[in-house]
Amino acid sequence: MARKLPRKDVVIVGLGWTGSILANELTDEGLDVVAIERGPWRNTATDFNVGYMQDELRYAIRKDLFLRPAQSTLTFRNNVEQEALPIREFGSFLPGNGVGGAGVHWNGQTWRFLPSDFRCRSHLSERYGEKFIPDELTIQDWGVTYEEMEPYYDKFEYLAGVSGKAGNINGKRQDGGNPFEGARARDYPLPPLDMTYGPKLFAEGAREAGYHPFPQPAANASRSYTNTLGVEMGACSYCGFCERFGCANYSKASPQTTILPVLMRKPNFECRTNSEVVRINLDRSGKRATGVTYVDAQGQEWEQPGDLVLVCAFILFNVHMLLVSGIGKPYDPKTATGTVGRNYTYQTYAGVEMFFDNKNFNPFIATGAIGQCIDDFNGDNFDHSGLDFVGGAGIMCASTNARPIATRPTPPGTPRWGSTWKKATTDNYLSSLYLNAQGGSYATRGNYLDLDPTYKDRLGRPLLRMTFDFPDNDIRMISYVTRKAEEIAKVMTPRQIVPHYRTKPYSVVPYQSTHNIGGAIMGSDPKTSVVNKYLQSWDVPNVFVIGASAFPQNAGYNPTDTVGALAYKAADAIRNLYLKNEGPLVPA
Amino acid sequence: MKRNPAPFTALLPLAMAAIFSAAAPARGQGATDSQSFEIIERGRYLATAGDCVACHTAPGGKPYAGGLALETPFGKLVGANITPDRETGIGAWTDDQFVQAMQEGIAPRGHLYPAMPYPAFTKVSRADLLAIRAFLNTLEPVKNPIEPNQLPFPFNIRASMLAWNALNFTPGEFKPDPGKPAEWNRGAYLVEGLGHCGTCHTPKTILGGDKNADSLQGAVLQSWFAPDITNAMHKGLGGWSQEDIVQYLKTGANQFTIASGPMADAITNSTSKLSDPDLKAIATYLKDMPSNANTTPVPVAADDKRMVAGQAIYKDTCNACHLDSGAGTSHLFPTLAGSAVVQSDNPTTLIRVVLQGTQGVATAAAPTAPAMPSFAWRLNDEQVASLLTYVRNSWGNAAAPVSAADVKTLRESLASAE
């Protein structure tokens, strides 16, 4: 039996990037806020200790900071014909666990989406005609424009101390930046990271091939930085332990390094860790949330009443929370009705490996988002007329790490073990490079999330079920861009080029990306979206669902900048619209 | 939905403090209107300047209701309940009794011990003391019986303090030096009086009295070294500007360092809440404090084997944050080059932070609170000694080498304190 706690103004489910941003904004508004976090408290000083943080075995291989499947998992299948089975070891994607969420273990690659990404269907229809869009795709507009997003992108980037070079300030081209990006109001808060040899060589090759290289925007501080909340960040030491690790040097932006020092001091904020929200409670009408029920580490169930419930967990668990709470109509692929779980997408990766003679890239001098990129083949930056796909991918040479256990580049044909393998790893460790093609992921009718009919979690709730395979459109898209990457590789004249094309079916075993997207998407029509342009539930207006769950489909970029911007956008709407007039901010 | 005007109410006491401290403190007045809003708020400010709450509050307890146990070299003393409860607090005391306790160390129940810093508070004016009293009277009376004196025999005999006083105590209110500016005198009044800086920063005699000739030149307490805060160049505040001192006291951090350890508490509870004019006055006075130790030691030679080993450990373990140059990062990673704490004769603080780690103070103005992790598990006594010998003698630094025996002793005492 749940014990009832005193009411709070705001109950936040999950204290990662979005939960921290919302909590900080709404406590500034004078509201009494509690965040309920499934995992443990995490702090730079105690948990990302500079003395042992660079432990690849513990953090990267044994995945110390990530969610354990025993805590929560999901089932997976490629299509509705298959029976989904539980993921018993996370592989393809790694959900975070604990305070800071994915903001702890990310690399720091901080991209804005293109203006055309936000008007995906309208833009493509206007440019090529509606018929050009493959039938399988259920891509749609976001209900928000890039211009509306710009101030919130800016706010997140100045919070996080992003290092980069603008390509377009107020419509004016900037040399050295991304010429394809949407107009930004001002440059990045910090200059780009110091570039290592590999990315420089790629930039030269790309330029020679006629493309437009620029440094990847990075939430790894290139200089020490005092952020907009007065929190100090240190200059990155290029240790190469970003993704899967917490940053010990206060250099990688995370809730810990940018918000929590301010938030945790506030008397009107409270965080309860090791406490998992079981469901959002609704009143009898089903139109208003009354709070949440959660279970603490001792197994005690608590009811936390609240006026406003903000769902700020990782995207998969945002969608799960709506489904188990009965908020919104679950999506049914047979009839293409319902919205919750619809338009689940991912990220489409491929790449090109290069082996050189007589080159030394010192790949261990690395940081999560260092690199040079071209955007010439991303989104709709190139003319798709005559091509058999829509969408695109960025191509980058990113030197994120070269850790000793997992980084063992060897040419095809090398034995998997023994002295020949050892010699090959020694010969190639310093002299190989990888070009990544990071593609968008477009929604289809058959890719979706729902509740599993068979398997339950430790709290007795049905597991989330993921049904996903790469759309044929995306395979054609990434193959095209991978061929472009191969052409650039040839200009760089390595000894050997090994392309890694993406093929179907999608597998959840090898790591690909933790950019899971969609399922509680935003839009302007309640028939095809779960939340409105302010991330407010169409069905239960005192519930906001914030995160990459809101993207209607994915662009060819990492999601965090857009997630941070959406969090600020939602906070702004709550502060300036919702609190003045509680109820739907957009008429349904 | 309820919307608390939290930011405004939180700022109110600070704003009031600024207003009242700007006015010249009334001195030498006999009677005080204990219900006056202005006097009560001035009392709140002065009680903050005196950091009364630090000793008179148990961890997690009600403010001023007593109960913090102080480990002194002579035994345990517990901060008294100074709420206005008539039985267990000081509610039944007269104003004169309160003033006598503060200025002479004589309370109704008997003589106080100088852990209650009456040798400093004797310098505080009667008007200021009565303002503090007026503020304390506004607190909720808390029934919390405390036996402050938990000393062993013979120190538990309060009358023994009469002899101690004769040797160590000079009563009398602060007398301004007419040859100095008002700001200097205000600083002296705060540093020597309510601020009782010397309680930690002045070396003590074997009886626990201040070594007055060495005033504010650094002392060890609770396995920390409270550094020299005179204007000494090498191991005092000589390298800091007045503005650096003000910023340190106000925010806990400045371009060189971040406060931690006991000073972090003093900044949280007290100095961060003082007015800018008072902080400037304190800085003015400290920058004028002479030191009798202005000779710079000769640095240990760079090719000394401890220096060579220390440099290797430093590069492996320290330079990601503190940098090869020892410059650190402003407001985040303390500067080691030229640091007074690094070059103090007594390396207790240095050894301690390497062994145990420490967290910087967080204030509203400098909320980051970066931390140095413990390296006790990874460096042995010899390695810590070499490392610190290197840090104390590089980038222009010069100080006596640290011995492995010193590290061993502190390691054991920290372990036994846990």
TrEMBL record, chain A:
Gene Ontology molecular function: flavin adenine dinucleotide binding; oxidoreductase activity, acting on CH-OH group of donors
Report the Pfam families cross-referenced here.
Answer: GMC_oxred_C (PF05199), GMC_oxred_N (PF00732)
Q: Where is the Glucose-methanol-choline oxidoreductase C-terminal domain?
A: 447-567
Keywords from the UniProt entry? FAD, Flavoprotein, Oxidoreductase
Glucose-methanol-choline oxidoreductase N-terminal domain ranges (all copies): 232-345
* InterPro entries according to UniProt: FAD/NAD-bd_sf (IPR036188), GMC_OxRdtase_N (IPR000172), GMC_OxRtase_C (IPR007867)
Q: Which Gene3D superfamilies match?
A: FAD/NAD(P)-binding domain (3.50.50.60)
Tell me the protein family, please: Belongs to the GMC oxidoreductase family.
| Listed name of the protein | GMC family oxidoreductase
